[in-house]
Amino acid sequence: MLNGFKDFILRGNVISMAIGLAVGAAFTAVVTGFSTAFITPLIGLATGSVGDFSTAEFAVQGAIFPYGKFLAAAIAFIITAAVLYFCVVVPMTKVQNRFTKEEEVDIKAALRDCPRCFSAIPAVASRCAHCTSEVEPDPEAVSLAKLPVQR
């Protein structure tokens, strides 16, 4: 039973996940510190507060609501999400798009009906295989298949 647990812990994906969580927690602490030290006081100055609104609160029948802490946490979340999006998601999407290959078009996969016998024929066909009548190939399918235009 302990061998199975040891194998589970030593798998690469579990260790990678643990490292990702540790780095994510450290990153969140850095962004929260930046938000608390710089962004929150700047917003407080812009809104007319005394520099820092993270201590702002209001009371209703003796219950204290510290809405400033929520605003500081929301600002830290928005900054974290923006940094992750612009520094991780956008560059990774560009890298993935650069290395993905264009799918080849299967010229026989696109089917249409023959106007004479109503059998399914390839969209690029110029003659029906069932009734042998001449048909006009679908111009869009011909261009996707990169075939010469037949006249």
**Percent helix range:** 40-55%
Q: Work out the number of β strands.
A: 4
Q: CA-to-CA gap between the ends?
A: 74 Å
| Strand order in the largest sheet | 1-2
Low-confidence stretches are: none
Query: Could you say which structural class the secondary elements and strand pairing correspond to?
Result: mainly alpha
Q: What is the overall silhouette?
A: elongated
**Percentage of residues in strands:** 5-15%
What integer is the average pLDDT? 81
Rg of Cα set: 31 Å
Major sheet characteristics: 2 strands, antiparallel
Number of helices: 4
What order do the helices and strands follow? HHEEHEEH
Description:
There is one protein chain. This protein has 151 residues and is mainly alpha-helical. Helices cover 54% and strands 8% of the residues. It has four helices and four strands, in the order H-H-E-E-H-E-E-H. Helix 2 packs across helix 3. The longest helix has 35 residues, at 12-46. The termini are far apart. The mean pLDDT is 81.
